[in-house]
Amino acid sequence: MPNIPSSINGVSVEFASTVNKEVLQVMINGLKHCIKTNIASGHTLNKIYISSAYDSHTLPSRHMQKKAVDISRINGTKMAVGYPQGGAIKAIVDAIQDEFEGFANRRENYGPHLKKKLGQNWTISGHNDHIHLSVN
After folding, report:
1. Are 113 and 98 in contact (CB under 8 A)?
2. What is the C-alpha separation between 99 and 90, in angstroms, rounded?
3. With 80 as the cut, is the pLDDT of residue 115 above it?
4. 28-43 pLDDT tens trace
């Protein structure tokens, strides 16, 4: 079982100390699809912070199936702080979520910009302080 790499397409990946980095290859492929330095026009994505992967959840959570990650910081700024201010953090988060929608194996795409499951609008609480991405 592969681990989430410490760099994806030139973007540094940091992890919470509680994160088990072991996920399915399809989840890593999903990250490679939407984590890019130039994801948002006019802004550079240098670093993401993964606050959860295969950890701290109970079944049937996609996390426990090694099929989900949560990203809570962009370029060192907590999403809960940076996103409401607009600017670079909002542009990058929106671009990541928009790009993930184009990934063939995407399942859940919950965050401050979109809440979609299998490409359809989805009602779920929370997710204003992080992006939850999962795959089939």
Report:
1. yes
2. 14
3. yes
4. 999 999 999 999 999 9
